[in-house]
Design brief:
The structure holds 2 protein chains of 2 kinds.
Chain A (H helix, E strand, L loop, with lengths): L1 E7 L4 H10 L6 E7 L6 E5 L2 E5 L2 E10 L4 H12 L7 E7 L17
Antiparallel strand pairs in A: 1-5, 1-6, 2-5, 3-4
Helix pairs in contact in A: 1-2
Chain B lengths: L19 H23 L8 E5 L1 H4 L9 E7 L6 H16 L4 E6 L1 H4 L7 H7 L3 E5 L1 H36 L18 H18 L12 H18 L8 H10 L4 H29 L3 H9 L7 E4 L2 E4 L10 H13 L2 E2 L1 H9 L1 H8 L7 H8 L4 H10 L2 H5 L1 H4 L15 H14 L9 H9 L3 H10 L11 H17 L3 H12 L3 H8 L7 H9 L2 H16 L8 H18 L17 H6 L4 H6 L2 H17 L1 E8 L2 E9 L4 H11 L3 E9 L4 E9 L4 H4 L2 H14 L5 H6 L16 E5 L7 E8 L4 H11 L3 E10 L2 E9 L7 H15 L2
Parallel strand pairs in B: 2-3, 6-7
Antiparallel strand pairs in B: 1-2, 1-4, 5-6, 8-9, 9-11, 10-11, 10-14, 12-13, 13-15, 14-15
Helix pairs in contact in B: 1-3, 6-7, 6-10, 7-10, 8-10, 9-10, 12-15, 12-16, 16-19, 19-21, 19-26, 20-26, 21-23, 21-26, 22-23, 24-27, 25-26, 25-27, 26-27, 31-33, 31-35, 35-36
The chains are: A alpha+beta, B alpha+beta.
């Protein structure tokens, strides 16, 4: 099993969610986060005052998937989240040692 | 032993609603039998006297639901339980658990029970329902005597604590009966509130030493039976003590009764509403009897009473309610009074409104109903959210707006919404209103925008109607339906055309900023023009931003997260920058070779001009331009509510703005807002909104003509404005506390051809003249000006060029110094 953690642009969230749904990935955890990579922040001016916008709003998605679906899921995710510009985000993949469904104690991929 | 606590499912689950109170009594009797048998088996041999078994809480009331805890009190003579008895108590409890009863027990003496423990108010409350089950009757009688003494002393304090707990519980459970998935026990209007009414009555009777007279309270029996049946069903379906009425269960129950879930939920809200109202009334009675500083303050507030309304203990009463029969408009004045002073309507007043409901309905449903002035007066009050809620609760809102009736108790299911449409709407209005007083740093930007809005009443009206279309159309189609409902209502009320346009635009675009936040790339160059097109004007953008804030915040308590707040503010900033990029904005360009006079007049104005002005206003501007052709200038000055509006059409010339501003300052007028447009032929159309702080124009009507003439002469260069100003006394500087330190900032990025200068300073008469003179004297030309004043703060934006180019760094530095000097009074 693999855990996918993706940081994406907030306005791409609906597209990614729909694309995931289309390939049968319904379960995910979503968080509103702030951060920056190479995109860095920028300054905004309002009424003569400068606002340093150093951390930009992003959406973080987390999902755990069977090993066999890794490539398909990552490709679908990157395709649906891409605009081609700096700030599109990143996808991180982790190994998952075990998954347990609390309700009935299912283990491994059948718990996903 | 049988498992008496297990629900037996009737063949038809609708049977849960057949005499449910009787079913609970029967279940209680069965558990009574089990408990008393077990007491006799395990405890009586060890403690033949000096111990009694009492039922408390719901068990004591004989309202034992299938999976409720069985609350027991083992009453003992004195403190300290011997080991032998302790072992027997364990065996007693174990036998009850073996009978599938979820037992919750405590062991106490009569002295324990008759002391007010502020940390355990729940004990005293549960004892209000105590009932003998088994054991020493003499000991139980002793408890009766001790409790009577205790209540004689402490009933008032206990009632106060009980009300405090209720308020905490309501806050924890959403603070409203109108929740989409309510907890039918703990939410407002739930079973706990029903019990509260009985407890407070018991405490009141205990205080008076006798049962109080039966009042004219409505019969809550049907509401109680409805909730009893419902809770039994929920326990039966969940197999545990679960009291949340989920969407799935709503579907299931509605199907049982052959109706739709929305319709069935209206039945729930109607019963819960009845209970909540009576609970509120009971709490009010306790509040009125409590003696505190608050009461003294409230009585002091009663000085706001007037000829029509009397205030007592923070509640509003009619002085002469019978006048409602011939003067039903008094009801609307009542709600204006409520909104102005922030006080609740007394229940007595609600009854009076009920009594004259027919007259009121007839008055409010007249067609056309020229009631806009009365509605506007309510919307403009500082506590209008309270006034509108009172109108809603008394049914007056639905009489005034039949459109509203369809949204009452309306459930629209989605993942995020927690409240019915009416509750969401009233919450949004309250959140909007709170922006006016909040000190929360997290929302300071939006609160700042709210303070700058000219007509918050129109935003409130737009919020009132923004979701009403949900009763007619699903999904996004509700927006169009809401617009139609609002337009029809405003036509009926006689709302002025300009206000109607504002409200319609706000409702039409009420999801625009949310949609930008969720689905648009904020860095995309197309996003800014999109926001600007939806907002129309800067004022429109501010209105839309505060409306969006209130709308999202009222979806559920955590919907407006700090993350979303940042997103909304970014969207506002993008729109703000686009709407203030005047020079690059689209210009009106008529392609016809043969142009009409009107087309020639409009050619070259920014497109924003058309968005901002109605057809009638554009026509008036055109007429003014026609007049200006003869003498080179035409001036129109008219008084509006609280201020004056000056419209001036003339041929453009250098330093013209400075001359006009100087003339205004020479008359002691204070410019609040100004904007100018120039067409392709070099004709300028300037609008100034100004106040007359010394009431010169009001007290001397001929001064209006003299101001007009002076402006004409100054515009044509026939009068030197410096001469005019020489005789003016210097303005009084503001107090140190009120002083705003001036800032001058330059931005060369926002425009291709000009430099933007933004000046924020303490406002004073003559400021615009001083600033524009400073710019002109530095050899720069003012291309566009946007003047705004909020309280004492002037926010002036100039787009400036020097010989057709942007200002270089040296020019900026020199001008900055001059402008800062000009800001100083």
């Amino acid at each position: 099993m693999k855990k996918i953690e993706a940081i994406i642009q907030p306005f791409k969230f609906d597209d990614v969610k729909e694309a995931m749904k289309a390939i049968g990935i319904d379960g995910m955890t979503v968080s509103e986060v702030r951060g920056h990579g190479r995109q860095k922040g920028h300054k905004e001016v309002y009424r003569g005052q400068e606002y340093e916008v150093d951390l930009l709003p992003k959406v973080k998605l987390e999902m755990v998937i069977p090993d066999a679906r890794l490539e398909e899921v990552v490709q679908t995710l990157t395709r649906s989240a891409r605009t081609g510009k700096i700030g599109d985000g990143k996808v991180f993949v982790y190994e998952v040692a075990e998954a347990v469904r609390i309700r009935n104690d299912d283990r491994g991929e059948s718990a996903l | 032993m049988t498992a008496a606590n297990q629900p037996c499912s009737p063949p038809d689950p609708r049977g849960f609603w057949d005499s449910p109170a009787d079913a609970l009594v029967r279940r209680t009797a069965a558990v009574d039998w089990i408990a008393s048998e077990s007491f006799r088996t395990h405890l009586e041999p060890v403690a033949p006297e000096g111990m009694a078994l009492l039922a408390v809480g719901g068990f004591g009331r004989r309202e034992l639901f299938p999976h409720s805890d069985v609350d027991l009190l083992l009453l003992i003579e004195k403190q300290g339980v011997p080991e032998r008895l302790r072992t027997a108590i364990s065996a007693f409890l174990q036998s009850l658990w073996d009978s599938n009863l979820r037992v919750s027990h405590s062991v106490r003496t009569p002295v324990d029970c008759s002391a007010l423990d502020e940390q355990n108010i729940e004990l005293s409350i549960s004892l209000l329902d105590e009932r003998y089950v088994a054991g020493d009757r003499g000991l139980h009688a002793k408890l009766g005597v001790a409790m009577a003494r205790y209540l004689d002393r402490q009933a008032q304090a206990l009632a106060g604590h009980l009300c405090r707990l209720v308020r905490e519980r309501h806050a924890k459970h959403g603070g409203s009966i109108y929740q989409l998935e309510p907890n039918i026990k703990e939410s407002p209007g739930g079973l706990r509130d029903y019990q509260l009414i009985a407890w407070l009555k018991r405490l009141r009777d205990a205080r008076h030493g006798r049962p109080g007279p039966e009042d004219d309270a409505p019969d809550l029996g049907p509401a109680r039976d409805f909730l009893f049946g419902l809770r039994t069903y929920l326990h039966y379906r969940a197999g545990r003590d679960s009291n949340t009425l989920t969407f799935e269960l709503q579907d299931e129950i509605a199907e049982l009764f052959g109706t739709g879930p929305a319709r069935w939920m209206r039945r729930y809200y109607s019963f819960a509403g009845g209970i909540a109202l009576e609970a509120l009334r009971a709490i009010e009675t306790v509040d009125e009897q409590s003696n505190s500083l608050l009461i003294q303050f409230r009585d002091w507030r009663s000085r706001v009473s007037n000829a029509e309304f009397r205030v007592s203990r923070e509640r509003v009463y009619f002085r002469l309610p019978q006048h409602l029969e011939h003067d039903p408009a008094m009801a609307l004045r009542l709600f204006e009074f409520v909104g102005r002073h922030g006080m609740h309507v007394a229940l007595e007043t609600v009854r009076r409104l009920d009594r004259y409901a027919a007259e009121l309905k007839r008055y409010l449903s007249q067609r056309p109903a020229p009631l806009w002035a009365a509605v506007k007066a309510i919307l403009a009050t500082p506590h209008c959210a309270l006034a509108l809620r009172a109108m809603h609760e008394t049914g007056v809102l639905a009489d005034l707006f039949p459109e509203w009736a369809a949204a009452e108790c309306l459930v629209i299911r989605d993942f995020y919404h927690r409240y019915t449409v009416d509750e969401h709407t009233l919450r949004a209005i309250r959140i909007l209103e709170d922006l006016g007083t909040t000190k929360d740093p997290a929302v300071k930007h939006v609160a700042g925008l709210y303070a700058e809005i000219d007509r918050p009443d129109l935003v409130t009206f737009a919020l009132l109607f923004h979701d009403l279309g949900k009763a007619l159309k699903e999904g996004l189609a509700h927006v169009g339906a809401s617009v139609e409902l609002a337009a029809a209502a405003m036509e009926r009320l006689g709302t002025p055309e300009e206000d109607r346009r504002t409200v319609v635009a706000l409702i039409e675009h009420h999801l625009a900023l949310s949609s930008v936040m969720n689905s648009r790339d904020l860095e995309d160059p197309a996003t800014a023009p999109f926001i600007a097109a939806k907002a129309g004007t800067l004022e429109g953008l501010k209105q839309l931003t505060v409306l969006t804030f209130a709308d999202i915040s009222a979806v559920n308590p955590s919907a407006m997260s700090p993350w979303r707040m940042e997103q909304l503010w970014r969207v506002y900033l993008i729109g703000y920058q686009e709407l203030t990029r005047e020079l690059e904005s689209d210009r009106i360009h008529e392609s016809g070779i043969e142009k009409t006079g009107m087309e020639e007049f409009l050619e070259g104005f920014p497109v924003r001009y058309l968005r901002k002005h109605s057809a009638a206003e554009i026509d008036a501007h055109y007429q003014l331009e026609q007049r200006s052709r003869e003498r080179g200038v035409a001036v129109d000055i008219r008084r509006e509510s609280g201020f004056y509006r000056l419209t001036l059409v003339a041929r453009d010339r250098p330093a013209l703005l400075s001359a006009i501003a100087g003339a205004m300052a020479g008359f002691g007028m204070n410019i609040l807002r100004a904007e100018g447009f120039a067409n392709r032929r070099g004709t300028i159309l300037d609008t100034f909104v100004f106040e007359d702080p010394h009431r010169t124009l009001e007290l001397n009507p001929t001064e209006v003509d003299r101001l007009r003439l002076t402006l004409e002469r100054v515009t044509l260069g026939r009068l030197d404005v410096k001469e005019l100003l020489r005789s003016r006394p210097a303005p009084t500087p503001p107090t140190k506390r009120a002083r705003i330190s001036p800032t001058v900032s330059f931005d060369t990025r926002v425009s291709e051809v000009a430099t933007l200068i933004e000046v924020v300073a303490e406002d004073r008469p003559g400021l615009l003249y001083a600033l524009s003179s400073a710019i002109t004297s530095a050899g720069a030309n003012i291309e566009v000006v946007l003047i705004d004043t909020r309280a004492h703060k002037a926010i002036d934006v100039f787009y400036v060029t020097s010989e057709g180019k942007k200002l270089d760094a040296a020019q900026q530095a020199g001008l900055k110094e001059k402008l800062l000097k000009a800001c100083a009074p």
